[in-house]
Amino acid sequence: MDAWLIWLVLAVGLGIVEILTLTFVLGLLAVAALVAALLGAIGLPVAAQIIGFTATAAAGIYLVRPLMRRQLNRGPDARSGAEALVGRSAVVLQEVDGDSGRIKLSGEEWSARCIDEDLVIPVGARVDVVEIDGATAVVYPREALPGGAPEHTS
């Protein structure tokens, strides 16, 4: 039997065991075995196949596996989508009050309203996003508004 066939059988076996165990190490070794099988199929000697397997396995285990583990260990605390926008800073594009307004948040234009219904935030002011309510960002001014105290509507 040719060496590349042995590598191919090893790759399939490691792949099957990886699916059953989800360790990520065996899957990376399966990929390395596929690389060795490819090297053997194009006619390189067994020594080159072993070097290819070793180099690919080492690269996978030391470079790829930590990235995969980091993604999996993000866990339920990782915020994404609208939740990830809470706590971010934005710029007012259209005056924001307790009912309406527009802000630029993470490069996108959002509808906004101020958490303090009596407060009016002028164009150009920086705000912090307190929560996301549907498609509306609920905000509060980052700093005191021009003119000292926050501007309240009458």
TrEMBL record:
Q: Where in the cell is it found?
A: Membrane
What are the entry keywords?
Membrane, Transmembrane, Transmembrane helix
Identify its membrane topology class.
Multi-pass membrane protein
Q: Which domain of life is it from?
A: Bacteria
- Which parts of the sequence belong to the NfeD-like C-terminal domain? 82-141
Transmembrane regions listed in the UniProt entry: 7-40, 46-64
List, alphabetically, the SUPFAM superfamilies matched.
Answer: NfeD domain-like (SSF141322)
Name the PANTHER family on file: INNER MEMBRANE PROTEIN YBBJ
Q: What is this protein called?
A: NfeD family protein
**Which organism encodes this protein?**
Nocardiopsis tropica
